[in-house]
Design goal:
Elements: H1 11-18, E1 73-74, E2 81-85, E3 94-99, H2 109-129, E4 134-138, H3 148-157, E5 183-184, H4 189-200, H5 202-206, H6 220-231, H7 256-260, E6 263-265, E7 268-270, E8 306-310, H8 317-326, E9 337-341, E10 351-352, E11 355-356, E12 370-373, H9 374-387, H10 401-407, H11 410-416, E13 427-433, H12 449-453, E14 462-465, H13 469-472, H14 476-487, H15 491-495, H16 503-523, H17 532-542
Parallel strand pairs: 3-4, 4-8, 8-9, 9-14
Antiparallel strand pairs: 1-2, 2-3, 5-13, 6-7, 10-11, 12-13
Biased composition (Low complexity): 41-55
Region (Disordered): 25-61
InterPro entries: S41A_metabolite_peptidase
Length: 544
């Protein structure tokens, strides 16, 4: 388990070793791999690396992942992004983009994004050169990460990415599309306090430069550290007005009041809906389609010839990528195809030809728009108390209690208790994400992915199969079966689980299962013992 249980023999001992923050080692977590905020500035020189026609130096090709085939392209060091060209009859035009993560564990976030951009551009260029027309995006085990999801969407998918990107070339095999983006944050009192204080110093925070910061008096070192901390804090970036926009009105949220809203949902309070327009140019990295990378080469893949392959573990930014891809309508309103592999049989749905059936959610992880690390919360609260010392006042101790607890690192120390090393304390789902303007009441993580996001699975867009022995030793057989399901001669009828995507049949089989249970109850009762309570039980069960 990676934890030291020496001397732990009772529940009290367990609590002292692993749960009591006052007994823990005071350890600062390492810098997270989350991308530091890139606040837009009026002095941007647009030194973007997003010109996808440029060729970055990529590493010599080699199979860097055990049991994987030789890559057509791969990333430069993070070893989480690679592209493959399948071989053999029926696979000559199939490309696989394997994304095990969307953030590197041991690589500078900006360096990763620049490299990711170049890797995807290189794969698409080679696909065009070799007339590849079919794409499988494999996000197995992908837990999310950085804005790489938007970058991939901009290159592979859409020539008019939102209102996210407004100046891209439209000569793409994907249709013109306006992608939707809207999210918000649960508005606790501490969130309001952090937003208000940070907004008051927004200019200094956004434009903070350690090399030009003046220290006119002895109190400035503390202020210097506080401003530096807020400038680098990815949570605070979401709470400062000026660079965020309303997806409803399209207007810039220029004040903290406009950003904070509030929005009331189910008797709870949230910030206003917001989105970040990716066409704003930055100094270090720009999404493809913004800045000098606006002339995007056409994608060689159509909606109908794109498959998202998942094992259900897709979450966070991976879920954002899936939502963006699913939002596109192709010819005759076709959607991208979905292949879900693995899962477990659902006995409630019975069997067909001794094969357990049942649909499986394509995205089984959290579908929030952004995570906030405990270190983000602590550093933000600590910095805000420096900039507004009146919040330390005991007069309003009840009102400021949450902010003070965050600054004291209670949650962090509790999570780090007993670890004894620099492991990150933890994180939480910081931002809700929403499907469309038609549903701004229920965040995606509370919707059924297959029904609420995809809009329903059917025989044209969905396939579910289990792993086989051959698939355990490498991904190639999984990729080939996914390709065969939608593009092969056998097709999905033979290669996918029967009835795994038919809602009507699912309902009939569920009712059959219920009736079987009722039959067993009745068989255990004699006619004389079948009383009103039993009848009520049967009726209530059938109506569930």
């Amino acid at each position: 388990m990676g934890a030291n249980f020496t001397g732990v023999r009772t529940g009290e001992g367990f609590y002292t070793s692993f749960c009591d923050p006052d007994a823990s080692i005071d350890v600062e977590p390492p810098a997270t791999t989350e991308m530091p905020p890139q606040f837009p500035t009026s002095t941007s020189t647009d030194t973007s690396t997003s010109d996808v026609s440029s060729t970055n130096t990529l590493p010599p090709l080699s199979p860097t992942i055990s049991n994987y085939p030789w890559p057509a392209v791969r990333d430069n060091g993070s070893n989480i992004t690679s592209g493959y060209f399948l071989n053999g009859t029926g696979y000559d035009d199939v490309v696989v983009l394997a994304l095990s993560e969307l953030s590197p564990p041991d690589m500078d976030p900006m360096a990763y994004l620049v490299d990711f951009q170049a890797t995807i551009a290189n794969l698409l260029a080679k696909s065009r050169e070799q007339n590849k027309t079919k794409l499988i995006i494999d996000v197995s085990e992908n837990g999310g990460g950085l804005v790489a999801a938007y970058e991939l969407f901009a290159q592979v998918g859409i020539p008019a990415m939102i209102a996210l990107i407004s100046s891209v070339n439209t000569s793409s095999s994907y249709p013109q599309h306006t992608a939707f983006s809207a999210n918000n944050i649960r508005e606790t009192l501490s969130v309001v306090q952090i937003s208000n204080v940070s907004s008051a110093d927004a200019v200094e925070i956004k434009n903070f430069d350690a090399n030009t910061f003046d220290e006119p008096n002895p109190d400035e070192p503390a202020r210097f550290k506080a401003l530096s901390s807020l400038h680098e804090n990815s949570m605070v970036e979401q709470l400062i007005p000026g660079h965020l926009f309303s997806p409803i009105t399209g207007l810039n949220l220029t004040t903290s009041d406009a950003l904070l809203g509030p929005v009331i949902l189910e008797n709870d309070t949230f910030t206003a809906y917001q989105y970040h327009p990716w066409n704003q140019t930055e100094d270090v990295f720009n999404i493809t389609g913004a800045g000098n990378g606006a002339n995007v080469p056409p994608s060689p893949f159509t909606v109908e010839n794109t498959v998202l392959l998942t094992d259900g573990a897709c979450s966070s930014t991976c879920a954002t990528l899936a939502r963006l891809l699913y939002s596109v309508n192709g010819t005759n309103n076709a959607k991208i195809r979905t292949v879900v592999v693995g899962g477990r049989p659902d006995p409630a749905l019975g069997t067909v030809n001794n094969t357990s059936t049942g649909p499986m959610q394509a995205v089984g992880g959290v579908a929030g728009a952004k995570i906030f690390y405990f270190s983000n919360l602590h550093e933000a609260a600590k910095a805000v108390l420096v900039l507004s010392p009146e919040l330390n006042s005991t007069t309003n101790s009840t009102e400021n209690e949450d902010l003070l607890l965050l600054a004291e690192r209670y949650a962090m120390k509790r999570s780090l208790a007993g670890i004894g090393g620099g492991e990150a304390a933890g994180s939480l789902n910081g931002k809700n994400d929403f499907v469309s303007l038609d549903n701004l009441e229920t965040p995606i993580q509370f919707l059924s992915w297959n029904e609420g996001v995809i809009g329903g699975v059917n025989e044209t867009n969905y396939c579910h199969f289990y792993y086989t022995k051959e698939m355990v030793f490498g991904p190639t057989k999984v990729w080939e079966r996914a390709a065969d399901a939608f593009w092969g001669e056998d097709g999905r009828d033979k290669l996918c689980l029967p009835l795994s995507d038919l809602k009507k049949e699912k309902g009939l089989r569920w009712m059959t299962y219920k009736l079987t249970k009722v039959k067993s109850w009745l068989e255990m009762s004699t006619p004389l013992s079948l009383d009103l309570s039993t009848e009520s039980r049967v009726a209530e069960y059938l109506l569930l």
